[in-house]
Amino acid sequence: MKRIVILLHRYLGLLAALFALLLGLSGSLLAVQQLLQGETYPAPVASHAASPHYQVVLASLRASYPQADFTLRLPQNPADAIEVRVRQRQQPDQLLWLDPQFGRPLATPEGRGTGWRWLHEVHARLLLEDGKTWVGVAGIAILLVLLSGIIHWWPKDWRKAWRLRRDKGLAVWLGDLHRMLGASMLLLLLLSTLSGLVLAFNQPIRQWLSPAKHGQPRTGKHITPAGPQLALDELVARGNARLPQGRLSSISISARANQPVELRKRLDDELHPNGSTLIRLDPYRGTVLSVERTEQTQAWRKIGSWAQALHTGSLGGVWHQLLMVVSGVVLMILGGSGLFQWQARRRKQGSRQAAMVATRARTAQQ
User: Fold this and answer.
1) How many CB atoms are located within 10 Å of the residue 138 CB?
2) Backbone phi, then psi, for 95, in 5-degree steps?
3) 189-235 pLDDT per residue, tens
4) Quick one: which of 239, 295, 306, 288 has its CA closest to 267?
5) 99: Cβ–Cβ under 8 A, 6 or more apart, which residues?
6) CB–CB of 303/205 below 8 Å?
7) The pTM is what?
8) Smallest Cα–Cα separation from 101: which of 42, 59, 57, 62?
């Protein structure tokens, strides 16, 4: 049985090694960036410090994208630019930065945040349209490699379990380091891998844990379009009046006339960095349709919030973020050292075969 586990670890590890290198490197760099700057996507700063005018921002967006859905991600500093994700049918999402008072597009300073956004797409989607699924598949492979590795490593003599032989050559030293790091960092690696798997397969988990139509945004069957919609600033004010606690983190506006405006808030006791409390309003009458603390009412949201907080290191502050940096570096070392051991084994086998052929040739000549 252990022989099967060893073969599984060896060959599955060979397939997962490149993903371990890529995800470990990108994840550790993103963790360092978050540790140093606090924001994954630093926004350009507007040239004034006045309160944002949401309706002006929305009007500017509607003039350019009349049939699009918008999500306005609001910065903690009201004077900073508003990040807007534009969604249109059969087109890739667009990311814009708008002046919070006048709705004018802001040019992101050259190089500022662009590389980090690209790196985040590499880590989360491998730059592929359905990349989250492939990241999840890679995560499953890495998980199996970790579990089979601990079985492979489990020693009969614990006095030899943590030895690092420096006098046997580079291949032996790297092999010992590979086993020691994998065993000593197993819990941290499992934490990082499992939380990443939850994020990669968030949608299937949501569908599995939620009954039909539960946890989905409410349809507009209770919203009857009647005249012009209220100004977005008025809707935000009514939502804040209904639930004054917490910080408003985003506003979602649909292009369909019978859909609610959705405000997202982060309350003090919520795990998700962007919050999980949703306030839905009738855009014509300003009526609050629902206030939903999804972390309390929906299991999938609670699991996703825990995974997000654990994977990004936002739960335990600086020390947690440092652990995520270490996790990425260790995963990268394990992938690289595993590939080196594979190559060293191939070279050793090739040398043995060459020696056997030479021996047979000499024997035949005699």
Assistant:
1) 23
2) -115, 125
3) 999 999 999 999 988 887 887 655 544 444 445 788 888 999 999 99
4) 295
5) 46, 57, 81, 82, 105, 106
6) yes
7) 0.79
8) 57
